[in-house]
Write a structure and sequence with these properties.
402 residues, mainly alpha, Growth Hormone, Chain: A, 15 helices, 78% helix, globular
């Protein structure tokens, strides 16, 4: 496998893909971006409604973890179903599962029922992310893999932002917000009609033993664990960090918006770099930047512009790490092995999603007022040390973008 350093990079992200694959790539990325809008609507909506129904914040947190439970439980199994059914049919059925569960929420408005429904939605969402990320990785080439996956990460993040902006327009009462999410989910199925060419059917082999890919590619799959820990910790606890420093509520909310803007912009830069240099080395460099940014955050929180710059960088770095992890998977695995590795990737993301907020919240209680920043230093620092040790233990491969 040739490394990115040996590839003449085309001027655009999709240009290096043969024409038969271009339409499929555009279709899949368009579909998942619309799905992002759906989740942007429903994620805050369900928390608000559960609170109105009398659920405690602890119970709301457990409810929000149901998709992670689904990912951990089913990620090892779903690649086999993808291999049997084919990617387009499996993705269409997963979209149908998301749509059905969206309509189920207002039909059964009770806290116990919403735990089951949210778990089932997590099953469908886990399938969506495994199949879409595998499919995109299969259709990308080594010349543009980093930028294609960066585009996927960016449009998904943009979809989440758009969904959050739609919710104030629909309101949170009754059927309208759920119908808006269902309409977006149905719309996401339209681009799949144009997805064809290579990668539409995955080879049905070597889809057993998903966890073994954690051992085969721990650096790449560790990126999903880091993303799971930091992404949900960042957006659920960052406002509390601001409030602990006596910021008012609008200031705390702006911090989240600044970090969110990094999610949309930075992956494109990371993807561009990933097609021009050693990707494993780029991953180590990005994680080191995040360690330094988090360590500087306690000082920067007292100054508007440094604070904004670091939050933008940290938010973008979180998704940049995820982008590089997916890029490395596509570089190292193919066919059924790629789907199984992607299953391990999603599984570890779910583990991080479950462990991250409690860990970071405990750190905030133990080390006030800057426990949030120091928890990020610990998590990113541990991952960086692991990457450095692995780099020293792994012999370089000639011509490989390892």
């Amino acid at each position: 496998m040739e490394g990115a350093d040996d590839v003449t990079t085309p001027p655009t992200m999709i240009a290096a893909v043969p024409p038969g694959r271009q339409l499929s790539l555009v279709a899949i990325i368009a579909s998942i971006s619309v799905v992002g809008v759906t989740f942007g609507i429903t994620t805050p909506l369900l928390s608000i409604l559960l609170e109105q129904m009398g659920a405690s914040r602890t119970l709301i947190g457990f409810n929000a973890s149901m998709p992670a439970v689904a990912a951990i439980g089913l990620a090892p199994v779903l690649p086999r179903l993808i291999a049997v059914m084919g990617q387009r049919l499996f993705m269409a059925l997963s979209l149908g599962g998301v749509l059905a569960t969206l309509l189920a929420f207002p039909m059964w408005p009770s806290i116990p029922a919403w735990f089951l429904i949210r778990f089932l939605m997590g099953v469908a969402a886990t399938g969506l992310f495994i199949v879409s990320e595998t499919w995109i990785n299969q259709l990308a080439t080594e010349a543009n893999r980093g930028r294609v996956i960066a585009l996927y990460s960016t449009v998904l993040s943009l979809g989440l932002v758009i969904g959050a902006l739609i919710l104030p327009l629909t309101g949170v009462d009754g059927w309208p917000p759920f119908l808006a999410g269902a309409a977006m989910t149905a719309l996401a199925g339209v681009p799949l009609l144009f997805a064809r060419g290579d990668g539409s059917v995955m080879a049905a082999h070597d889809t057993r033993g998903v966890l073994r890919y954690v051992r085969e590619a721990p650096d790449a799959i560790g990126a999903a664990l880091l993303m799971g820990v930091l992404y949900f910790g960042l957006f659920s606890l960052l406002p509390l960090y601001g409030l602990a420093l006596d910021f008012d509520t609008p200031q705390a909310a702006r911090m989240v918006a600044i970090a969110g803007s990094g999610l949309v912009v930075c992956p494109l830069v990371v993807g561009w770099l990933a097609d021009r240099m050693d990707r494993a080395q780029l991953l180590r460099g990005l994680v080191l930047v995040m360690v330094l940014a988090a360590a500087t955050l306690p000082w920067a929180m007292l100054h508007t512009w440094p604070r904004s710059a670091l939050l933008f960088l940290i938010g973008g770095g979180v998704v940049g790490v995820y982008t590089l992890g997916l890029t490395l998977l596509g570089q190292r695995f193919q066919g059924g092995r790629l789907a199984a590795a992607n299953g391990a990737f999603v599984l570890m993301f779910g583990v991080g999603e479950m462990l991250g907020p409690p860990f970071m919240g405990a750190f905030m209680d133990l080390v006030p007022p800057h426990g949030f920043a120091w928890s990020m230093v610990c998590v990113c620092g541990a991952y960086y040390v692991f990457l450095r040790v692995r780099a020293l233990q792994t012999p370089p491969r000639s011509g490989a973008n390892a």
